[in-house]
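Training component of the fellowship. As part of building independent skills, the fellow (R.M.) carried out the full modelling exercise for a liganded target. The chosen ligand was phosphoenolpyruvate. The inputs are recorded below so that the supervisory panel can assess the work.
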Amino acid sequence: MRTKIVAGNWKMNLTLTESKQLVNKLKFSSNSENIRVLIIPPYTNLDGLKRLLDAQNSNIEIGSQNLHHLNSGAYTGEISGQMLKDIGIHIVLVGHSERRTLFNECQEVVFQKSSSALNQNFEIIYCFGEQLSERIEGIHFNVIKNQLEHLINKIDLKYWESKQIVLAYEPVWAIGTGQTATSEQAQEMHHHIRHLIQQSLGVQIANQTSILYGGSVKPSNAKELFQQPDVDGGLIGGASLDATSFNSIIKSLITQ
Ligand code: PEP
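Fellow's submitted model of the complex:
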């Protein structure tokens, strides 16, 4: 059985005070290890929220939005895996489209970060997705294949086996735009992704790897998306900033 995950990417939103208020309103409890809920707040909130979640014995997990591939050095404004691990953070997003486009993270950099994070025993949520122009041109399946190539062919199989790699397919045209991929479009691409994994890494890895959908997921469309056979949950941006919406999306995952 594949693990189902809902992860809230808060981006550059919420002060620590606001974050704590939001966390206090989130509702998630599960006895199943196969259902997980994560929050991914800004750096300044990681330590405080980790302590709060621990104090509450919460099942909600917490991850970072980014990391630098090196452990320390003259990299003003960056944060290392070592620093994150020191405050108990073991999950990190890599390759989010905003990092790729606004902060010029090319495939090589995303691969460097992924590889460094995995070597340091992080679980990574690897984000990727095509631009609208690429979908219109009809090259989206190839674009996705290229974005996954390094990860599938160059990363040690042990990291796939240990389920340290979670994939998040996020069509760029659907992120923050209100324009969600239809459940058919999401399923079609997730099936393609699973097939790519199967071709190179085998059926067992393909079947056990969680593939999340991201891009304008909201309470009104979450259930239908999560019901697709190859969609194992969602990476949620805007809707994760509101307790009612995020709780509703979490419920969609639990009850589908
Ligand atoms: C995201 O930031 O990963 C995302 C999917 O954002 P939104 O849900 O707002 O489209």
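The panel noted the following from the submitted structure. The beta strands are 4-9, 35-40, 61-62, 91-94, 123-128, 165-169, 211-214, 233-236. The mean pLDDT is 96.
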